[in-house]
Amino acid sequence: MGRILIAGEPGTAILPELAPIDGEVVIEKPGKGAFYATGLAEALQRKGIRQLVFAGVTTEVCVQTTMREANDRGYECLLAEEATESYFPEFKAAAIAMIRARGAIVGWTAHVDDILESIAHA
């Protein structure tokens, strides 16, 4: 079984058009979640960040795993629905339903346009 979606494996390079700018934090994760065995928690603590917006692939694996890790650490979590994807639409739908379940047990979800509008009016 291959190590898909793991830093350093085929298909995981940062696309040039999405390359980080100078000073931007880059987290290379060894597994599905971004908190496990990385400096993410420390980087967020240094900046006093308590609210996170999630995007990426795949919704039901890496994104949901990281949201669960963040939620367990007390972060407020929001999934940008159109900014995440899956190989299977039904898996994405199920992951979104799980995230929202029981009054946002893992976090909230919203459409990208609504998130951007909220930021613009903050």
TrEMBL record:
It holds the Pfam family Isochorismatase. The keyword Hydrolase applies. Residues 6-107 form the Isochorismatase-like domain. InterPro entries: Isochorismatase-like_dom (IPR000868), Isochorismatase-like_hydrls (IPR050272), Isochorismatase-like_sf (IPR036380). Gene3D superfamilies: Isochorismatase-like. Keywords: Hydrolase, Plasmid. It comes from the Bacteria. PANTHER family: FAMILY HYDROLASE, PUTATIVE (AFU_ORTHOLOGUE AFUA_2G08700)-RELATED (PTHR43540:SF9), PEROXYUREIDOACRYLATE/UREIDOACRYLATE AMIDOHYDROLASE-RELATED (PTHR43540). This is Isochorismatase-like protein. It comes from Rhizobium phaseoli. The lineage of its organism: Bacteria, Pseudomonadati, Pseudomonadota, Alphaproteobacteria, Hyphomicrobiales.
